[in-house]
Amino acid sequence: MNPRRILQLLLTPDKIPEKIKKVTRRLFYRRLASHVGYSAPFPEGIDLLLTDRCNLRCKMCDQWNPDISRTKNISSLESQELELDHWIRVIDECKPYNPVITLVGGEVLLYKGFDAIVRKLSEENMNWTLVTNGLILDRKLVLLKKYPPKEITISLDGPEDIHDEIRSYKGLYAKVISNIETIRQQLKSTGIRLHTVMTRHNLPYLLNWVDSVNHKITGISNWKFIHLQSIDAGTLDRRKQFCRENFNVVHSAFDGYMLPSEIIPAAADVLEYKRQLTLKDYNFKTSFSPDFSDNSIHQYYCEKNKLLKEKYNGKCDALWSVCAIYSNGDVHICQDLKIGSIKETSVKLAFNSAMSKLMREKYIKSGTFPGCSSCFFSFSGKSA
Ligand code: SF4
Predict the structure, then answer these.
(1) Is the pLDDT assigned to residue 15 strictly greater than 60?
(2) 363 CB less than 6 Å from ligand 1?
(3) Residue 171 near residue 211, CB atoms below 8 Å
(4) What is the pLDDT of residues 175-217, one digit of tens each?
(5) Does any ligand 1 atom lie closer than 6 A to the CB of residue 130?
(6) Rounded to the nearest whole angstrom, what is the distance from the C-alpha of residue 378 to the centroid of ligand 1?
(7) Across the strands, what pairs with 106?
(8) Measured between alpha carbons, how far is 244 from 47 in angstroms, rounded to an integer?
(9) Which residue from 312, 313, 365, 369 has its CB within 8 A of the most atoms of ligand 1, so it is best to mutate?
């Protein structure tokens, strides 16, 4: 069978079981990359960043902080947001391919068309999840009860005083815990996932905290402890230069990973925390993301600009499998590389634009981009 016929078959939904389809797509498109013109099937995962606005001002966040924000001018964020009909069109396009759709922000619940998008996703029986800081989840309870997501991911940074301090909002922790309990009681079919990013600031308190809430926070399907994503100045400069020279792109989502060294935890502390946590038996499942071995943890924190050979072997699938649509309609792959705008084209065409194909070609030929060592896509094909 010629490659074009195979390509067509692989693009046809519902013909092949999902798992086989995914593996086959990856092998096929990567192996025969040059023969299929560096094209890709429809993305398997799409993040919809409905808004960059947020109701919190977390210390480590690049969304609002003008020093590290990719937008710089937060007062104009709402006026740049896509109108609802663009998102509805995206969902209509996605429907036959059934990708995992993640609604994310900013604080995604603030988007003016949030209710309509949730209704549409549910009515179309799409596979969708939601990432939120949890502060105003109760305001959406009636909506989410009627149209429940498969999963809600909520960020918690540590015990009450630490969480409220990091997120600069007194009383936030209590409110989020209360909302988690409400969601647990009211949305029986929705999984609740907690995310805690490990920093130097919260790490000393995590073990006692998780112990103390073992019987208090119930109904959690998974509690993930996320390694802090960061990049050093030299690698960031190299990435910017590389993107400028090869793709004529100047903007970099990686700017937000340039974190002050005082918040990056020491490898030894992360290792000790992992050792102690994994000895415990909790009512909820705990895991680390990415799921590094001890050796990789050491290398990740101590040699930031080196690729983790154990996990990464020049086979990042993200360029073939996931994309993000930003609040202004820009479609991105590889985090900071724009491949089109949803105002002008479809997801499918953007994912196979000349720019997308050029990126895949460069990647296949070089086996890595500057910044891959700091990118969690390289380990799992998704951000966390
Ligand atoms: S691992 Fe590298 S190629 Fe893959 S998405 Fe990240 S930066 Fe891009």
Answers:
(1) no
(2) yes
(3) no
(4) 999 999 999 999 999 999 999 999 999 999 999 999 999 999 8
(5) no
(6) 6
(7) none
(8) 25
(9) 369
For helices 203-213 and 267-279, the axis angle rounded to 10 degrees is 10
pTM of the model: 0.89
Q: What is the pLDDT of residue 255?
A: 85
Atom of ligand 1 nearest to the CA of 316: 4
CA of 322 to the centre of ligand 1 (A): 11
Looking at residues 297-316, what average pLDDT do you find?
Answer: 74
Atom of ligand 1 nearest to the CA of 239: 7
Q: Predicted confidence band at 27 (pLDDT cuts at 50, 70, 90)?
A: confident
Burial (CB count within 10 angstroms: exposed 0-12, middle 13-18, buried 19+), residue 63: buried
Average pLDDT, the chain: 87
Which atom of ligand 1 lies nearest, measured to the CA of 333? Answer: 5
DSSP state for residue 172 in the 8-state scheme: H
Give the separation between CA 221 and CA 147, rounded to whole angstroms. Answer: 19
Looking at the DSSP bridge assignments, the partners of residue 98 are none
DSSP reduced 3-state for 382: coil
Evaluate whether 250 touches 268 at the Cβ level (below 8 Å). no
**In contact, 153 and 131? CB cutoff 8 Å:** yes
* Ligand 1 contact via 103 beta carbon (within 6 Å): no
Give yes or no for residue 318 CB within 6 A of ligand 1: yes
* Comparison of pLDDT for 125 and 36, the residue scoring more: 125
pLDDT, residue 384, reads 47
- Ligand 1 centroid vs 369 CA: distance in angstroms? 7
Ligand 1 nearest atom to the CA of residue 369, by list position: 2
